[in-house]
Design goal:
Blueprint lengths: L1 E5 L2 E3 L5 E8 L8 E6 L6 E6 L5 E3 L7 E6 L4 E6 L8 E7 L21 E5 L2
Parallel strand pairs: 2-10
Antiparallel strand pairs: 1-3, 3-8, 4-5, 4-9, 5-6, 7-8, 9-10
Amino acid sequence: VQLVESGGGLVRPGGSLRLSCVASGIIFSTNAMGWYRQAPGKERELVAAITTGGSVNYYDSVLGRFTISRDNAKNTVYLQMNNLKPEDTAVYYCNAVKYYYCSGYDCPTLSPYWGQGTQVNVSS
């Protein structure tokens, strides 16, 4: 199982970033995928998820600002993040999700393995 996240960086409030995650070793094309994030001192939370058919679910705090998408041919899931806020600062991870309609904390994954994540810093 390999999950490789990229696209993070330092942006000012109101800025945008696009994260990418390439998944291999898991059945990407038949599983819902999600983006999790973990801020310092906090547990990991699921902020966006997408099914193989394109149904999506978002955590309330990112609704209207983040957009999740996937390219099954490339085993890649994306997270477009607009109007970023300082509270979005975290390490972002992707994984196959057990319940795409779950959001926030305690949302189980289908795989126990995690990638290295990509750091997002939102600061002026």
